[in-house]
Amino acid sequence: MTNVQIFPDADQLAKAAAEQFITLAKEAIEARGVFTVALAGGTTPQKLYQLLASEPYRDQVDWPRVQVFWGDERCVPPDDPQNNFHKAWKILLKHVPIPEENLHRIPAELTPEQAAEKYEEILLKFFSSLPDQVERQNARFDLVLLGMGDDGHTASLFPGTAPIREMTRWVRALYVDRLAAWRITLTPAILNRAAKIIFLVSGQAKSWALQKVLYGSYHPDSFPAQIIKPLSGDLIWMVDEEAAKLF
Ligand code: 6PG
Known about the structure:
The chain is globular, with a radius of gyration of 17 Å. The protein has helices at 10-32, 46-52, 84-91, 112-128, 133-138, 188-191, 207-215; strands at 3-7, 35-39, 66-70, 72-74, 143-146, 171-176, 181-186, 196-201, 234-240. The protein has 7 helices and 9 strands. The strands form 2 sheets. A 6-stranded parallel β-sheet has the order 1-9-8-5-2-3, covered by helices on one side. The protein has a single domain (3-180, 201-240), classed as Rossmann fold. The structure holds 6-phosphogluconic acid. 6-phosphogluconic acid binds next to loops. 6-phosphogluconic acid binds at residues 40-44, 71-72, 84, 147-149, 153-155.
C-alpha cells in the first residue's frame, strides 16, 4: 500500500519532512550510533534543507553522527551552482556542525565513468567499515530523499535510460539527451535497499507525472520513479496539494 501524505503547501511539506528527518536521525543514532542519509538534488528539498539549518530543527540533529551522501549529481565541478553537493552545502551543510569527513559527495569533476566507479568505491568502503556486522551486510541508507521531475524521473533515472533497470551496480553514469548533459546516479540496486525512502513532490507542474507514477499502469521505463520500491523498508510520498490536484 502506497503511503501518500498530502500537505496544504510547500512550507507545510518542508516542516513535516524536517520532523521526519529529525525522528529518523534520532532513532538511527540511538540504535546504531550513526544516521546515513542520501540527499536529493534539485530545488524541492531546498525548503527542507533551510529548515534543518535553522532553529528549532538544527539543534535536534546530532550532526557529528550523520553521514551524508547524494542520490545523484550533475557532471559539473563541486563549486558550480548547479552541483547538488554545492546546493546542499550552501543551504544546509555549512551551517551545521557536521565534520567534513562525513560529507561523501559524488566526485563529478572526474570523467562520468570515473566518477561512477569512484563513488561506488566510496559507498562500498563506507558500508564495509560500519562497526555493526548486520549493517555491513545490509549496506543500506537509513534514509533516501528523492525528488521527482515533471516527466516522472527521480535521481538521475530519466525515462528510457538503462540505469532504471540496473539491479547490480550501485552507481551509473549516463548521458541524458533531454538535458544534453552527463549525470551520475545511484541505481535501484542501492536505493531500494534503504530503510526509508521519502519522495518530496511539490507544485502543479508535477501533478500529471505524480498521478501517472502513483496510480497509472506500471511502466518504469516511462516513469522511472515507479522503479523505487524498497525491498524491506518504507516508502513515503510527501506531496503538496498542488502536486496532488489530479487525484
Ligand atoms: C536533480 C535531482 C532530480 C530532481 C528532480 C526534481 O539532480 O535535479 O536529483 O531528480 O529531484 O529533477 O527537481 P526539482 O525539485 O527541482 O523540481
